[in-house]
UniProtKB/TrEMBL annotation:
Its cofactor is [2Fe-2S] cluster. SUPFAM superfamilies: 2Fe-2S ferredoxin-like (SSF54292). Keywords: 2Fe-2S, Iron, Iron-sulfur, Metal-binding. PROSITE patterns: 2FE2S_FER_2. Signal peptide: none annotated. This is Ferredoxin. Coiled coil: none annotated. InterPro entries: 2Fe-2S_ferredoxin-like_sf, 2Fe-2S_ferredoxin-type, Adrenodoxin-like, Beta-grasp_dom_sf. One of its GO terms (molecular function) is 2 iron, 2 sulfur cluster binding. The lineage of its organism: Bacteria, Pseudomonadati, Bacteroidota, Sphingobacteriia, Sphingobacteriales. Belongs to the adrenodoxin/putidaredoxin family. CDD domains: fer2.
Length: 109
């Protein structure tokens, strides 16, 4: 793995994991990266924390993420099926600290 990349694991609906090599030197959010990898993320608001359509559930590595902002919390709070480990992928800037993160798209089982 290159020094400017991290590994992000995405849990598929069947429970298997897909490992992705994500660049941390391009200023991408997790939402932008997952969209580029053709995951089914609407991201209706374009990453402004206004719609919650990029919600992911963090299965491993939640402690590696920056603290949730008030705006992110307020938007997540509108979801009827919010989980304690739910986050907006648009608010998670890819960084070296996130190496090994495991997520699944919210609502996919």
């Amino acid at each position: 793995m290159e020094e400017n990349n991290i590994t992000v694991h995405v849990q598929n609906p069947d429970g298997t994991l897909t490992s992705l090599e994500a660049p941390v030197d391009m200023g991408l959010s997790l939402m932008e990266y997952l969209k580029a990898c053709e995951y089914d993320i609407l991201a209706t608001c374009g990453g402004m924390a206004l719609c919650a359509t990029c919600c992911v559930d963090v299965l491993e590595g939640e402690d590696k993420l920056k603290e949730m902002t008030d705006d992110e919390y307020a938007m997540l709070d509108t979801l009827p099926d919010l989980l304690p480990n739910s986050r907006l992928a648009c608010q998670l800037q890819l960084s070296h600290e996130m190496d090994g993160l495991v997520v699944k798209l919210h609502g996919t089982d």
